[in-house]
Amino acid sequence: MTDVHIQTAILDMGRRARAAAHELVKLTSEQKNAILLAMADEIDAQQPAILEANAKDLEAAHEKGLTKAMIDRLTLDPKRLKAVADAVREVAALPDPVGEVLSAWTRPNGLRITKKRVPIGVIGIIFESRPNVTTDAASLCFKTGNATLLRGGSEAIHSNVALAAALQTGGERAGLPQDSVQLIPFTDRASVEHMARMDQFMDLIIPRGGKGLIEKVVATARMPVIKHYDGVCHIYVAPSADQDMAVKLILNSKTQKPGVCNALETVLVHESIAKEFYPKLATALREAKVEMRGDSTAVTYLGSDAKAATEEDWSTEYLDLILSLKTISSFSDAVSHINRYGSHHTDSIVTKDRAEAERFMHEVDSAVVLHNASTRFNDGGEFGFGAEIGISTDKLHARGPMGLAELCSYKYLIDGDGQTR
Amino acid sequence: MTDVHIQTAILDMGRRARAAAHELVKLTSEQKNAILLAMADEIDAQQPAILEANAKDLEAAHEKGLTKAMIDRLTLDPKRLKAVADAVREVAALPDPVGEVLSAWTRPNGLRITKKRVPIGVIGIIFESRPNVTTDAASLCFKTGNATLLRGGSEAIHSNVALAAALQTGGERAGLPQDSVQLIPFTDRASVEHMARMDQFMDLIIPRGGKGLIEKVVATARMPVIKHYDGVCHIYVAPSADQDMAVKLILNSKTQKPGVCNALETVLVHESIAKEFYPKLATALREAKVEMRGDSTAVTYLGSDAKAATEEDWSTEYLDLILSLKTISSFSDAVSHINRYGSHHTDSIVTKDRAEAERFMHEVDSAVVLHNASTRFNDGGEFGFGAEIGISTDKLHARGPMGLAELCSYKYLIDGDGQTR
């Protein structure tokens, strides 16, 4: 296929997604949930075909020499596929945010205004190697009444096609409007650009993947993009901190799952407690095999196994058992450091001083700010959202954990009896 | 100045705006209101200098041969300037949405989560000829704790510089952090591009002007854009409509202020009432000097002064005393027509059938949907918002009238006592 043919095919899928979106608003919550359950059942029923498709992807992955970690992310087996289907069932069980009345009031002229939650319309999801994103993203977008255009990476193309087919077959048997869930079968880079420019048919685009992918979408997209960028997360240990609690929170934030965006990357320590606190912390970090990179004061007190941090360390998301440590001389310096070097994702203060905690949470410009708690709590599940499509580092529309409500827009309904201006 | 110098200067303004934004969050509502009042007083005090600057713009406008309407939009006089200052005072008097608790809950592990309204950060406003946008946009953005980068058109550059200087001088006397309100003094097209790419320093860009300007910003911007596109607004007259009410609503929606986005452009009439309704409507439209463009049925009943509508008419925003009229054969056709040809802005149904009205408001995919009311009610003032920065045609973050709350983001504050995962 030439690029023009690919572009035409993608535009046609967009046009059909828009038409599907207008049908989707007519479904009740009960109808949507029945469709989700039928989708899950079909994933179970199609197990042999899906695993066969996955085997093709795995064969190609071995030939291409993908890393062990990448192959693991790609791999489906009966147990994992069962979990994929069960995740769709869990989405069916969640409350439906669509139709919720957000506010309602009556104007002096008698007009009754109701602000109501509605689907966004058509959502494009661009993702990389994990095939379960196909079903996760599609089920969350469908639950909120949106049509979805999915475009996965080449590594998982056979698995993605098989999973999308199961969603469509199962869903349509239970009344899913045609073209509600479409997988774009092209994996070249140009297809991302064609999607990103199609703002007449797509209301939102969500890139789920590495920085390179997100940057590409941001540079091209004509419609809103919700980004899930890096988390350069901090814990500030204030003079009055419970130091044992600080050690425990730093350890949990850094080591409980180092490869995720809400893991800790930098600790700030007030100079007045440096001499006492750093050695305690060093013992715990050493035991947990965390590499330490500090400023000169930190290195002095942490011990000889601590390395000197460079300027680059302060803005690095290690996603690994590495921690940068900086000594600061005032509360304001802590806030300034976080607002300058951080990624406005998740930052925590450990202090017994309530006023200081409140000032920290007020002045630090991040999606989630915590007091005496692990950074790992910036998470849709931990918030009680039931499901999340990601953690937004944007400030518009969705900030922080993005659940079902954030996959919705709103509209105003006005009821009158002949009012004019 | 070369383009590189302009780009460097704009980047530097962005960097300073970001720093100002971090200072702005520290201001209380009382401090912000005092600053707004000082800004207004300074506009009054600087009246001679501002009018002198405006005279320079007007002189250039006459030389360039701008239209009478454009010159009128550009013109300031003592009365208009007083209104400009008073509009800033009105913003001071509005309630401050910043700090409002949007929701709060406690998790089973004891974490207390609070979702709080906060400023967005740095907002860029790009506008065309009206100089009062300088003070309107700056006062609304400042009220909500945002730093502002304003970039007006070349026609009003002297007036804009003088007004921005008054805001800064007055504001800073009352404690406005430096660089909170900056006017970009470049009016070339490249300066818009430099702003639109500066996503490290700007969180949102709002183009206020014609379609060409908005398109340019959409194509270039790396940060979110809130768009105020055309309004191709409809009224659907259903079989059970109170026909006198329908005539009254159509007349008001079309003629009360034809040049605005929430004015009516297309009337849809159910075929079962065409013969009875069109002649009544034609009489009223004729009297109001509204040009009629209809499909063949409409033309038959409207009379010989009605023209035949072309396909293009159905998606045209006339902004003038012209109305297109189409006969439709079912409720579904009305909804389909609106969702296809409309601009998802404002659409109204006239009917006595409540179930039909509810279905219309549910299925029509527009920011504001009305029942038995004029389309002119899609307006921040009419909603009771006190002020609006525009009417968004976007579905993300802000849809419909955009008031102070829509100039805010939110953050999550989490209070713990040592919780880990």
UniProtKB/TrEMBL annotation, chains A, B:
Source species, domain of life: Bacteria
Q: What is stated as this protein's family in its record?
A: Belongs to the gamma-glutamyl phosphate reductase family.
Q: So what does this thing catalyse?
A: L-glutamate 5-semialdehyde + phosphate + NADP(+) = L-glutamyl 5-phosphate + NADPH + H(+)
Q: Any idea what this protein is called?
A: Gamma-glutamyl phosphate reductase
One Gene Ontology cellular component annotation? Answer: cytoplasm
Aldehyde dehydrogenase domain residues are 15-298
Q: Which UniProt keywords apply?
A: Amino-acid biosynthesis, Cytoplasm, NADP, Oxidoreductase, Proline biosynthesis
Q: Does the keyword Oxidoreductase apply?
A: yes
| Gene that produces this protein | proA
One Gene Ontology BP term is: L-proline biosynthetic process
What organism, scientifically named, is this protein from?
Brevifollis gellanilyticus
- What is the recorded function of this protein according to its Swiss-Prot or TrEMBL entry? Catalyzes the NADPH-dependent reduction of L-glutamate 5-phosphate into L-glutamate 5-semialdehyde and phosphate. The product spontaneously undergoes cyclization to form 1-pyrroline-5-carboxylate.
